[in-house]
Amino acid sequence: MKKTILIAMGVAAALLAGSASATGGKRNFNVYADGFQEVPAAIFTTGSATLRLRDRGNRFEYRFRFRNLIGNIENSVGAHIHFGRPGINGGILAFVCGTNALTGPAQTPVCVSDGQGNGEIRGVISAEDILAVDEQGFPANDLNAFRSAVRARAVYLNVHTDAFPAGEIRGDF
């Protein structure tokens, strides 16, 4: 009986490994952001956000939701995906949403809230949306490099507001 269970577990593991490599690995990435993850100092805010990235091969689709921000996202530089590990700041790789102060690439959605610090934005990140971060050696327009950084958990979401221009909430992948 134990031998049968072990064989079944081995077959299941092999099938799962095969399906992961057949689809190119993990396809969905989720992050939760709050003020305690901000660097260099935690921000005490009730604000939070979630970002769900779905790898579609030639693009990433996303849904970005934020709640209870103290500051106004529309009067800031927006929300971005940055290149950096937990506890380390890095350059902007891609825009989640832009503002008048920092618009982002042409198809970047505009940061909009309900006036109470809440909002939801959907968008797409494709190769032409990937920005170079020269000081960190990150190439522009390279969706495969972006995918590698996301899979390696070397990116984070940073949401800026007018109350906290360097970032009110952050979420490390």
Q: What can you tell me about this protein's structure?
A:
- This protein has 173 residues and is an alpha+beta fold.
- The chain has a single domain, classed as Immunoglobulin-like (Sandwich).
- It is built from two helices and eight strands.
- It has helices spanning 2-22, 143-151; strands at residues 28-34, 48-55, 59-67, 79-83, 92-97, 119-126, 155-159, 169-172.
- A four-stranded antiparallel sheet has the order 1-2-3-6, covered by helices on one side. The chain has a four-stranded antiparallel sheet with strand order 5-4-7-8.
- The protein is globular, with a radius of gyration of 18 Å.
Features of the shown structure:
single chain; 173 residues; alpha+beta; Immunoglobulin-like; 8 strands
